[in-house]
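Quick one: co-fold with beta-L-fructofuranose.
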Amino acid sequence: MRTVAAVDLGASSGRVVRGVVDDGAVHIEEVHRFPNGPVHLRGTLHWDVPGLYREVLTGLKLAGELDSIGIDSWAVDYGLLDAGGRLLGNPVHYRDSRTDGSTPRDGLYEINGLQFQPFNTMFQLMAEPLLPQASQLLLIPDLLSYWLTGERGAEYTNATTTGLIDVRTGQWSPELTRDLPAGLLPDLRHPGDSAGTYNGVPVTAVGSHDTASAVVAVPAETDRFAYISCGTWSLVGVELSKPVLSPESKAANFTNEGGVDGTIRYLRNVMGLWLLQECLRCWDAELEPLLREARQAEGSVFDPNDPVFLPPGDMPARIQQACGRVMTRAEVVRSVLDSLALAHRDAVNDAQRLSGKEVEVVHIVGGGSHNELLCQLTADACGLPVVAGPAEATALGNVLVQARAVGAAHGTLADLRKLVRESQPLRRYLPRATTSRYA
Ligand code: LFR
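Sure, here it is.
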């Protein structure tokens, strides 16, 4: 039996989870949860990364005796270090406007296989005033890991979201990193590798991109599955062994991000529950009562991936504008859920068409798996069964990769997924006859 701590930082909350793994079972228990979110500092949107580090230390203390620690977070964002290893400035949030106006570049997709997102690290670096002073860049989980251990590295799954990795070689691309200061990017490390020690406890590299860890814990029975890692974003796609770099894939803005065990996470970013989170913030309201009302409400369909929804702001107004009508709160919520369900369907269909991989089930993991209406609407729209759960897939995937590294779990991703399937409560939604809305 081994006990590990998974530090999992999401865009709206962070948590430290204690995971106990022995032959054939995994149990997790949240020992510390704390809010996370953007902080406006005189016109720039930041993360409070030192504050997050303090919460991580609190959580690790509460976790008790440990055999390993692993850290994951959202992707693309980073801290810069000076030659003495000190942090230069507080890390900037990927929703900051400094990357407004970034456009896709010819020839990039063929090398990095990455979807165009204005916030990809490579575009942030083009707008980075501190770059000339920087000696090294660490992505957020690697930065926290460095503060814990004093050791630096770039975990591979998260590094693939920078846009600077050659998806064909799995290495930093000499071509794409040509204009960056020498030594800026640390050596790569892979999930399962050692990342140093903290107070004598091994720190283990995991799929440090939260989505990579979430995909590890998809409780799939066969490989014919699509997943939706549903939280602030909905990451919708399939698992592949090789990237798809076709012009059609590029046009559909599908990404080939690095997964655990050399897999490719072939997916599209759908705007996700961010739309609802921002509505609730504007209204200062709770989700549950609105979800109950939304069951009966009439929604309108809009494109949730319109970049107008990317920055924080008056989301209810933007949604009503996009739908071309004035709506009640319940109608806004219903419109978000209907529109997300359709965007989920489109991404599941596109993933199959573009990769040639057919699926027979859609797994919804992450916090959004608790949203019964969204799960049902997604099943209806896709015309496929949806298996919902686990909600804490990211923490579980983080725990399992550590457990394997310390010898408490064994085998392939399929073996790790079996552990999840056998130990976590899951809920099944069957597609209902489609309404005209989904024609
Ligand atoms: C999800 C996620 C997505 C990434 C976005 C920005 O939390 O990591 O995979 O595209 O956040 O980093």
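If it helps, The chain has 14 helices and 22 strands.
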